[in-house]
Amino acid sequence: MSFPRPELKYRVRRGVALVGAGVVVLAIAGWLGPVPTVPVQGDVLGPDGRTRAEYVDFAAGQLEQLRQDSTGPRDSTEQRDPQSRFALVTFAHPLDAQQASAALRPLQRVNAVVVGGAGPVPVPEPVAGRERAEVFDTALGRLTAAMGGAGTPGISSVVVYAPPAQLEQVAKHALVAAVEPGLADAVWGNFAVRPQVG
């Protein structure tokens, strides 16, 4: 009985070790998997580099265009667009929970509050028997706690979901500086919100 040469035995062991290492690397790569991609956020609500005055004019123009699209004359090429959509409601100055709730009373849905230049903070709709102001108070309380209790911040804007008629109604409120409607096909989480800073 003859034994294989020592060099062959060494080569076989080295080959098995390399194949094993390759399998381990592939298994780890498969386990970690590809990193999920962030959806492209091409749609933006907010000033996006405009001054406050420019933004107020821009938002008013967008709201007027929406009004014309949803109530204007129709012909074979023009469609009315009365459906609900997301919009950014910017207040004349930061409001407390009661003031914001009163200004937004005509709206059926408030999705998020914006405090200062921070990103939107999602808020639920109030449960039966509760007021929207209570939901806002809870959100502001959490923000205050997160900021180390350095005073209660005011709500500078909100992201809402409403039909054009309700958006127009809110735009007429004295405490509302601008209502910028988003696109009709916008999906929550797939558009950016850039609130007015300062």
From TrEMBL:
What keywords were assigned to this record? Membrane, Transmembrane, Transmembrane helix
Annotated transmembrane regions: 12-32
Name it.
Uncharacterized protein
Per the UniProt record, the source organism is: Corynebacterium lizhenjunii
Give the source lineage, highest ranks first.
Answer: Bacteria, Bacillati, Actinomycetota, Actinomycetes, Mycobacteriales
